[in-house]
Structure formats: C-alpha cells, structure tokens
Design a protein that fits this description.
201 residues, alpha+beta, 4-stranded mixed beta sheet, 7% strand
Length: 201
C-alpha cells in the first residue's frame, strides 16, 4: 500500500493508523499546494481530486477520504482492535465519531486556512469549533479515549484535527479533558513515528 500525504494535513490520521496497524506501507509526500510528487510527477494523475489522503492498494485501486481509509486499515488487522467489528453497535458509534469529526470539526477548521476568508467569518468558525470541542470535552470525561478505555481510529482523526488549534490561535485550555487526552495521544509510539516521518517533531 501507498499512503499519499501532506505533512500535518488530515492525512496524518491514516498515517498514525497505519503505524498502529503494523502493516507494510509506503508513505509518499504529496504537498497540497504544489501537487508535485517526489519523482516530479503531478499527484492529480494519482488522485484527480488533488487532495490527501489517498491510499493506493496493491491491486491498483485506491481509497479516498480519511474516515474511510482509517476504517479500511483497521479492518485488515482486526486483532489490533483499532475499530469494532462491522455490524456491531459499537462500530456504528465509531462511525458516528468519524462523521462528527469530519463534518463538524475538520470542515469547520478549513475556512481558517483560506487567506481570503474575512475575519468575521473566521471568528464564526472559531466559535463553532469551540462549541464542538466543549461537547467533546464532556464526552471524554472519565475516559482515556473517545470510545472508552482503548484507542480507536477516531482518536487518530481527532488528534490530527486538533493539532491545528495552535496555529489557528484556538486555545484548548478551556477543554481540560481534551488537553489530557491529547497528552495521552502524543505519547503513543505510533503517533510519534508518524509525526516524525512527516517532519512535525
């Protein structure tokens, strides 16, 4: 497998999950700004949409979208318990988390990265992010991870997205459970390896 990623982008989530999985893979830098791969070719020839992540499979097919890729990887190594079994109520709980992170948190950060976005619009997005993080903070009360005692692929996704709080000047201190959870996440060896590979630490 090949994971196409851009350093620090949402593709860090499947990068972490691949490290957790122990599966063999190759990480290929595909910067979102230049779309130029290490060999000089245009990334859009691999993924016409031009964004990351993209997971190229050994049979020549590929998978897009962060929330889908992390579940695919988890399902290849069920013994690692990175995601509950398909068809179970807990799997639907995981999918609910992934969908929430993708649509309510990740997409709320997106406008903050746009240089032409008016400050008033950015302020509204920050307010929305704060409301969502306040809810997450309550959900993390008494838990080590989003799904309870154990790490899941949803943790990798939320960790990646909340990494953007600091550069976007969003204070996480009002959310002590989120801060404590991020500290636990940051010490996981797979997180360390993925972040090091992307030059983030």
């Amino acid at each position: 497998m090949k994971l196409y990623y851009s350093a620090g982008a949402c593709s860090l989530a499947p990068h972490i999950v691949l490290e957790e999985s122990g599966l063999p893979y190759e990480a290929v830098s595909a910067p979102t700004k230049t779309k130029e791969l290490p060999d000089g070719s245009d990334y859009r020839k691999v993924n016409p949409l031009g964004y990351v992540p993209y997971l190229a499979l050994d049979d020549g097919s590929g998978i897009r979208e962060c929330a889908v890729i992390v579940q695919y990887v988890a399902d290849q190594v069920p013994e690692k318990h990175l995601a509950p079994a398909n068809g179970t109520r807990t799997r639907y709980a995981l999918m609910s988390w992934l969908n929430f992170i993708a649509t309510e948190v990740h997409k709320s950060f997106a406008p903050l990265f746009q240089p032409g976005m008016p400050d008033a619009a950015k302020a509204l997005m920050k307010e929305k992010i704060g409301a969502r993080l306040k809810w997450v903070d309550g959900e993390l009360a008494g838990k080590n991870y989003l799904m309870g005692a154990d790490f899941s692929v949803a943790d990798a996704y939320l960790f990646t997205v909340t990494n953007w709080a600091k550069p976007m000047n969003i204070d996480l201190l009002p959310y002590p459970n989120v801060v404590a959870w991020r500290e636990r996440m940051a010490t996981r060896p797979a997180v360390q390896r993925a972040m090091k590979a992307e030059g983030l630490i």
